[in-house]
Design brief:
Elements lengths: L2 E7 L6 E7 L4 E4 L34 E5 L27 H11 L9 E5 L7 H14 L4 E6 L6 H9 L3 E5 L16 H14 L5 E7 L6 H12 L5 E6 L5 H4 L6 H16 L7 H15 L18 E5 L3 E3 L17 E4 L26 H4 L8 H27 L2 E6 L29
Parallel strand pairs: 4-5, 4-10, 5-6, 6-7, 7-8, 8-9
Antiparallel strand pairs: 1-2, 1-13, 2-3, 10-11, 11-12
């Protein structure tokens, strides 16, 4: 159990007020140790598997999320791409599609795909058009109620492909970081033909609520408000923006876009919190989801034992495979890659389904930092297979990225603004807004006298 003293001030009056917060039980207490009831709903939370190298996880045949990895080839080279230095397995091709589809019913329990999400991944999935087209059509024919999804950089779109995506009722995310796109490569918004094709797909899928631009936050692209404003200026309307979280560092490319300076951590937290309080960047999915989920966790007293990893790939019902039937840790690795804990990312094959063992993942309960962190229920343990220096760097940035959501949710619940959190977390994370310990600040940092 980890309890935290949440030191707050009331807006306008600046009156100090303290609370206690238990991140394991999601309970809040006043300064007299009396529990505060926020009027939630009693739920039957189920405990999750606490996966680790020594406690591997099998996979259920009652699959709810099927991620199909077509290959790691891409027509772009994004600086922070999690796949950039992943060793590539032998490429699959369209000849692998029919054998894959024929074998599918032997390990995929669903009859018609109801309540199932099938995701098609690259690299860039449209690089694999000759495989993607018959594969998606075959799955839709066999499992008509399944939701088909894809994330693409959009640069290989044309009207024919867009019409096809629309006909199969795809949900599509277009990867674009707005003002921070320069770390990805040439901006397709600057290419008249590419922009036309992206907007064409938007006009097809947006009326059905099945398209978004997916932006990532990093050191040089910290403002969600700026991301939102950039898209509105370019497009002339408020677009739904998916993703929106801070990148995870998998190599030196990702690490180069992470925050390392304490003053910059303070500034990023403060500016993000100011934007949230002002209602800016509210069309980013991550903003809506994380604040709501945190508030719900407290209202409904969600136990930490029910909190899995943020990506969900530690769930038995979520699985990633390639067209050879190889089962992978997740869609961002290959069958010949090795995890940070020394285990192969090839965790089995669908032909031997009962012997699939996820042993490259580390549940947050097996980490030192996570159980002692106030944002546990928001962060959900960062990337499940990072270890060592990359994990530590990712953890530091995940904390600074998630603490503003904690502060915003806390103010919505209690009417008080947290500024200092005493507890077992790292000492440099306690002064969350830099208003107590004299950490170097800029003019942008929020003042303790909030308005």
């Amino acid at each position: 159990m980890a309890r935290f003293i949440i030191r707050c001030v009331k807006p306008i009056t600046n009156e100090p007020i303290d609370f206690w917060y238990d991140n394991m039980t999601s309970q809040v207490f006043d300064a007299d140790n009396k529990e505060i009831d926020f009027g939630g709903v009693k739920k039957d939370y189920k405990s999750v598997e606490t996966v680790s190298k020594n406690t591997p996880l099998g996979k259920s045949r009652n699959i709810k999320k099927l991620k199909i990895q077509l290959g790691l080839s891409c027509n772009y080279e994004c600086t922070y791409c999690s796949q950039r230095f992943v060793p590539k397995a032998d490429e699959t091709n369209k000849d692998d599609v029919e054998p894959f589809l024929a074998q599918l019913p032997t390990w995929f329990e669903s009859v018609d795909g109801e309540d199932v999400r099938v995701e098609f991944w690259g690299g860039e999935p449209l690089v694999y058009w000759k495989s993607l087209k018959p594969l998606a059509e075959g799955i839709k024919a066999r499992y008509p109620k399944a939701e088909l999804t894809m994330i693409t950089n959009g640069t290989l779109l044309d009207e024919e492909k867009s019409d096809w995506l629309d006909a199969l009722d795809f949900r599509v995310g277009i990867s674009h970081d707005g003002p921070g796109y320069h770390v990805r490569g040439l901006d397709p918004f600057d290419d008249e033909e590419k922009l036309h094709n992206i907007i064409y797909l938007w006009t097809k899928l947006n009326p059905k609520g099945k398209i978004s631009f997916n932006a990532m936050v990093h050191k040089n692209n910290l403002s969600r408000a700026a991301i939102s404003a950039w898209f509105k200026e370019k497009l002339g309307f408020d677009a739904l923006i998916g993703e929106g979280a801070f990148i995870d560092p998998y190599d030196e490319g990702g690490a180069s876009l992470c925050i390392t300076d304490p003053a910059e951590h303070i500034e990023s937290r403060s500016n993000s919190f100011k934007e949230l309080r002002a209602g800016l960047g509210s069309n980013l999915g991550v903003t809506q989801t994380k604040i709501k989920n945190f508030i719900d966790s407290i209202k409904n007293k969600q136990p930490a034992t029910s909190v899995g990893q943020k990506c969900g790939m530690d769930r038995p019902e979520d699985i990633a495979v390639d067209l050879k039937g190889n089962v992978l840790t997740c869609q961002n690795v290959s069958a010949v890659a090795t995890g940070f804990n020394g285990e192969s990312h090839l965790i089995g094959n669908v032909a031997d389904y009962d012997n699939i063992k996820l042993n490259t993942s580390t549940h947050w309960s097996h980490r030192d930092e996570c159980p002692n962190c106030p944002v546990l229920q928001i962060c959900q343990g960062s990337c499940m297979f990072l270890h060592g220096p990359m994990w530590e760097l990712g953890c530091d940035n995940a904390y600074s990225d998630n603490i503003p959501f904690f502060l915003a949710g806390w103010e919505m619940l209690t009417g008080a603004v947290p500024y200092y959190i005493e507890g077992p977390q790292k000492a440099d994370r306690q002064d969350v807004l830099g208003v107590v310990n004299g950490i170097p600040k800029t003019k942008k940092v929020i003042n303790i006298k909030v308005v």
